[in-house]
Amino acid sequence: MKKSLFLLALSLLPLVGLAQSTGYRSQVWSPDNGDGTYTNPVINADYSDPDVCVAGDDYYLTASSFQCIPGLPILHSKDLVNWEIIGYAVKELKPKEVFDQPSHGNGIWAPSIRYHDGMFYIYWGDPDYGVFMVKTDNPAGEWSEPLCVIPGKGMIDTCPLWDEDGRCYLVNGWANSRSRFASVLTVRELNAEGTKPISDPVIVFDGNGTENRTCEGPKFYKREGWYWIMCPAGGVPTGFQLAMRSKSPYGPYESKVVLAQGKTEINGPHQGGWVHTEMGEDWFLHFQDKECYGRVVHLQPVTWKDNWPVMGVDKDGDYCGDPVLRYRKPKTRAPWKVVNPVETDEFDAPTLGKQWQWHANYQQNFGMPTAFGTFRLFTFKHDKQSVNLWDVPNMLLQKTPADNFTATAKIRFTSKADNQMGGVIMMGLDYSALMVKRIGDEFQLLRATCQAADKGKPETVSVITTLKPTAKDVIDYKPGIHLDIYLRMTVKAGKCSFAYSLDGKKYHDAGETFKMREGKWIGAKIGLVSVEPDGNTDRGWVEADWFRISR
Fold first, then answer.
1. Positions marked catalytic
2. Distance (Å, rounded) from C-alpha 77 to C-alpha 56?
3. What is the pLDDT of residues 312-357, one digit of tens each?
4. Environment class of 465 (CB within 10 Å of its CB; exposed 0-12, middle 13-18, buried 19+)
5. Which of 183, 177, 225 is nearest to 206 (CA)?
6. How many of the other CB atoms lie within 10 Å of CB of 5?
7. What's the pTM value of the predicted model, to 2 decimals?
8. What is the spatial distance between Cα 27 and Cα 393, in angstroms, rounded to a whole number?
């Protein structure tokens, strides 16, 4: 059945991308209440530092992807509530010698997406290498190769503004870890094409020594003759949103706090994108830091009061809104389907589902789809001196999709030599994995857990049980042994429990509950891992039949 489905997918290859990215309804989080209202977050997954642009009645969102590849996810919506992943803007990060290995927390920081003169642009700052840009006329298709607009260290959180006269300005923040200064915003002019600077930077806002410390993540707009910079300040988990206005792109800017937590449970509501819709409404998408789950995306109404954008609901009239939890949906020309970012993958197509990312630039020996309706993840030859999995590049991972969910994988593990292992993992600064490992002619089912993996701490391993192979090669000159098994992770309130089954019906607990922890600037991620000690043995592999997200 799997093979016939795959052959059907091949016959429909031009439609595969569309089929994978439309019509998916999550079992674990859907913000559309079906009654004309929505519940925040509209994307309950780690799309940190979101930005959005509007083209007609279409909205496109991107977010920070750091070292994860493919990078710069592109999401599409027609109502700002129901979003689907339609692609990525970056296939590979450079320099290759850096990003061919995991470079946790580096790469693409806080991008901005803009629609200008029939083209879509994304700008971002790589804190180590400079300001980059990609562009396209079709956000669901191919994007240009990244262009370094401004080389140098420390520039982050970049956003362009094309003025009515065709001039282009760029605002950005600064990373203290690279520049040794921060909490300032600078503006400079680019050429009309937005491909190189034609002026030096000017400091237009300084949050040093004030409540506006850590001002960063600026977004640049113009409205009715006023230049606007929307930016967060006050720190990631505790911050608030500033709006700044001036009659000149170079300031001086006056500012107000226009969105803060107030008495709500939505902490640190800030950093995102403002859109003005075809229906004449204004909305603001921003993130909320939910620790191990990462930074999830909320949608706030925007009303204008005395030429200030009040975000959320301002009950006390102080121009600073409180974030909403439930609210009416934005007005649209026509109803938009209930759709969510894809999570489950049956691996029946010749391409991966759009939810998956690697921890480094993709290489063919990481893994590939098969003609059998599976995905084959080869064992990564791990340095014998490594004490944990932090530097493994070929983990096939996706974001956690909700606070509570179950992820189940049906796999066959094929081993050609001792000590090859593979299974499922909850990956972060701390991680825990449930893997099968070949020892002689049998398999051990292991829990491997590591605290402070980023600090080089060793993992602890416990044996859950020993299992006989379900099949053995008899013809191959290097015979493999195989184990068919179902592996499960169940997440509730920031904790993950593991289980296994040999028949897909009866599950057995597999070790202690694991307290999840975020990664480097990203939320914890779930998926598949397959490793072995470095050496000359033939690789083994995880053959994943499916990976399903459910309640």
1. 49, 216
2. 12
3. 999 999 999 999 999 999 999 999 999 999 999 999 999 999 999 9
4. exposed
5. 183
6. 15
7. 0.95
8. 30
